[in-house]
Amino acid sequence: MSDQIILNNENMVTSKTSVSVLFAGDSGDGMQLTGTQFANTVAVYGSDLNTFPNFPSEIRAPAGTISGVSGFQLQFGSKAVYTPGAKFDVMVAMNAAALKANLKNLHHGGIILANTDGFDAKNLKLAGYGEENNPLDDGTLKDYTVFTIPVVTLTRKALADTGLSTKNIDRCKNMFVLGTLYWLYSLPIETTIETLRTKFKKKADVAEANIKAVKAGYNFGDETEMFSQHGRFSVDPANKKPGIYRRVTGNEASAIGLTAAAKKAGIELFLGSYPITPASEILQTLSGLKKWGVKTFQAEDEIAGVLTSIGASYGGALAATNTSGPGLALKAEGLGLAMILEVPLVVVNVQRGGPSTGLPTKPEQSDLFIAMFGRHGDAPVPIIAATSPVDCFYAAYEAAKIAVEYMTPVICLTDGYLALSSEPMLIPSPEDLAEITPKLAKARNEDDPPYLPYKRDDRGVREWAIPGTKGLEHRIGGLEKQHETGHVSHDPENHALMTRLRAEKVERVIDLVPDQTIDNGPENGDLLVLGWGSTYGAIKIAVEQALAGGCNVAHAHLRYLNPFPKNLGQILGNYKKILIPENNNGQLIHIIRDKFQIEPIGFSKVQGLPFNEMEIEAKITDILKEL
Amino acid sequence: MSDTNTLLTAKDFTSSQEPKWCPGCGDHAVLQQLKNAMADLGLKPEEVIVVSGIGCSSRLPYYVSTYGVHGIHGRAMAMASGLKTARPDLSVWVATGDGDALSIGGNHYIHTVRRNLDMNVILFNNEIYGLTKGQYSPTSKVGLKTVTSPNGVVDYPMNTAALTLGSGGTFVARVLDRDGKFMREVFKRAAHHKGTSVVEIYQNCPIYNDGAFAVFTDKERKADTTVYLEQDKPLVFGAQQDKGIKLDGFTPVIVDLTDSSVSKDDLWIHDEKDKLKANILAGFFDDPDTMENCLPRPIGIFYVEDRFTYENALDEQIAQAQSGGEGTLEELLAGPSTWTIK
């Protein structure tokens, strides 16, 4: 990166194209809030950004320990930002444990803002450094730029006259650090001040104390001699498409996508769901959208989550259920029922580390097989995978469109990384969203011929007969049904026919699937990196960098996993080698190998961590060397 | 809904599909009374939906000319709950069995009952798995010899009425498959009740568990082994109506009404609004075949409670949230906080 140095009257300002920041502290230190404030500020400032929270799976892990460390990472930049950053450039460490837990991911030469009040004997011992070994002054950090700030002491001094208790004053320490960071990155403090006034509308004294802390932290930057050697930094606004933006996490985006689809289709949204990490925020978000008529049903278990949805779907609602791996396993029988009933249903599966309880708070892409094959009998369903937090909106929306228009369950795959990450979303106008047209059966009179619930149109799709409609009374179920009439049938030929018709219908979803495109790189050449889902950002950057380094490499990213785009086979044939990076032990590679009879190169990462661009770029380089 | 309907009869609720239950199965009688009740209630076929799980009784939706869904094993209650939540306007009936509702679907059963959605659960209890050919069920009596209990069942049986009350049920009833007219009336009461109504039917399986309820249905023994619950009436039973039940503290005791020292005024008066008494009644669960002079098995409506229904409460919350107008798609997409890039 070409950092430009500008000298001004007070401090030298170094311009950066992107910066990755980690706010780390004890889970009680308010790091998520601090990170969120910083994200909002850079967003309004016009940067592109991507955030990722990292918090302990224990709700109240022991204070001061490594397991109690809560982190919030974000990357912001003047060009497109696709990930929270493989490593961070600057780290705020509110205590010794936060430093110890995260130092390995700080860039060599990176900046540490350490709260010295969190490095007393007790904190050092809890962090495992030993009471006598303070990393801040024993040479441990000699490769980094360390700024030591007694944050608690300074906050108390600044807020001494507020009349608040020491406990409440100490709660503002995160705002002090935030202020200092705003100063360091030449960012305005106004966005945070406005937010604090709104957030603490009913507690003006708390609002003012927090604002005072932000200002004190900012002024501290101005006044202290500490930064004079390194100066300040700035990141120009990104050249983003003009428009109105909001910030969304993947889970929020999924929830909004489903609701928007229901609105667009003119039907009610019903979500049957059982809380599960990392999918619960979808249920939480939707339960707060009653103003949009959304009905959520917190079911007694995962099975009831999908079955209540199937019931609602039979009743004419756009029905969805959300879950993560273990829950998808429990919903398998229900999905088979929805498949044979041929009712619309969207399953948003937020993948996490498995099998079993596995790594519940860590992302993985290891549910592709269960999504594709995890039902008894011949029961194919369409599958879409979101590529970014914002894409969770569009993936959920498209899943709903396919479900309604093809009368089928659809699985929408996201993961814990997308679910919790956030990025700016250019708000679409309602007209920009594709129409969703349910194919509703019309009421019939007594002298009309009997209603045939499984009569299909030329796409193989049956009608949706909504209970309450006169003349459409019909009985359907999980038993094999006779072609067209839907009556129970054990006839061998009929079963063969119905199995084929159901599979063909899912195959015909291909008509809605746009052709696969090459995201970056040549249309044919040495190497194609074929990704799916949340690896988009890491692959995008890796291929960009490899191309800049003269490599013959391209990037294609799959969103439609069943059915695949029509031209996928043709694209795969245009490259000498195909590399498939996956956060699993090799799943897409099996499906590609089986479907296209080619031998791609697999690249697995199953550490409960997303890929970073360096890993992928190194792999690309290695492969190309051997060609 | 009205109880008088000149337009429709049970025939109008009969589908084109011939019931495939065994001859002599109690399910035939239940189906007939259900259709009778639906006609009596003045329901329109297009407004009715019957939901079921898996098992012999769960085939029922195919035989009723309304809307119907035959789901998967144990999940009828969950499916019906989602349907009723999405469509409070429909008349929702659940056909389920002892295995479907109480074994594989036990979790859905207890939670559906406590949520109190306005729907009617017809629980066919034959104390056996019929469709899978004769394995014991969670309601089978201890000692019952079946294909999976050749030496006799050692599982203690589940008490449906006690479970339902314990789960917060608001309408708890038990009927016998032989009591057609009585069943029809209880179905109608169940339909009128705003909440989850559970009607347990002691239903004979002539193939795998024939006579399981004979002790309660045989003419000779019925009068001594059952007590019919009537609102505001004393608990009296016996062939000559010569036995009564009174409460000694919280303990029910059988008294001889021919004894001149016993006054009818001291008898237990049935009050279906009294939860404590309903719980004691549910405990009348001893087996007259194995215990002499045990308390008779109550038949009828144990308990009725007026309580808010899940779907209405949810709809009220939605109405409240929409009091300032329904959210638009534009508002949804914009969310609470935006910024503009020029």
Describe the SSE topology.
The complex is a heterodimer of chains A (627) and B (342).
Chain A: E1 4-7, E2 12-16, E3 18-26, H1 31-45, E4 48-54, E5 69-77, E6 88-93, H2 96-102, E7 106-115, H3 121-127, E8 145-149, H4 151-158, H5 166-170, H6 173-184, H7 190-199, H8 204-223, E9 232-235, E10 243-249, H9 250-265, E11 269-273, H10 280-287, E12 295-298, H11 302-314, E13 318-323, H12 325-330, H13 332-341, E14 345-351, H14 368-373, E15 383-385, H15 389-406, E16 409-415, H16 416-420, E17 422-426, E18 475-477, H17 492-508, E19 525-532, H18 536-548, E20 553-558, E21 560-562, H19 568-572, E22 575-582, H20 588-596, E23 601-604, H21 613-626
Parallel strand pairs in A: 2-9, 3-6, 6-7, 7-8, 11-12, 11-13, 13-14, 14-16, 15-16, 19-20, 19-22, 22-23
Antiparallel strand pairs in A: 1-2, 3-5, 4-5, 10-17, 15-21
Helix pairs in contact in A: 1-6, 1-7, 2-3, 4-6, 6-8, 7-8, 9-10, 9-15, 11-13, 18-21
Chain B: H1 26-40, E1 48-52, E2 67-70, H2 76-86, E3 91-97, H3 98-104, H4 106-115, E4 119-125, H5 160-166, E5 171-176, H6 180-192, E6 196-202, H7 214-217, H8 219-225, E7 226-228, E8 236-237, E9 243-248, E10 251-256, H9 275-282, E11 297-304, H10 310-321, H11 329-334, E12 339-341
Helix pairs in contact in B: 1-6, 3-4, 5-9
Order of helices and strands of chain B: HEEHEHHEHEHEHHEEEEHEHHE
**CATH class placement of the largest domain in chain A:** Alpha Beta
Cα distance spanning the termini of chain B: 60 Å
Number of structural domains of chain A: 4
Query: Order of strands in the sheet with the most strands of chain A?
Result: 12-11-13-14-16-15-21
CATH topology of the largest domain in chain A: Pyruvate-ferredoxin Oxidoreductase, domain 3
* CATH level-4 homologous superfamily of the domain at 10-212 in chain B: Thiamin diphosphate (ThDP)-binding fold, Pyr/PP domains
Widest sheet: strand ordering of chain B: 2-1-3-4-6-5-11-7
Tell me the total number of β-strands of chain B.
12
Gross morphology of chain B is globular
CATH homologous superfamily placement of the largest domain in chain A: Pyruvate-ferredoxin oxidoreductase, PFOR, domain III
Q: Gyration radius of chain B, to the nearest Å?
A: 22 Å
Strand share of the residues of chain B? 15-25%
Estimated structural class of chain A: alpha/beta
Main sheet attributes: strand count, strand direction, barrel closure of chain A? 7 strands, mixed
The CATH architecture name of the domain at 10-212 in chain B reads 3-Layer(aba) Sandwich
Mean pLDDT of chain A: 95
Q: Major β-sheet of chain B, in short?
A: 8 strands, mixed
User: Helix count of chain A?
Assistant: 21
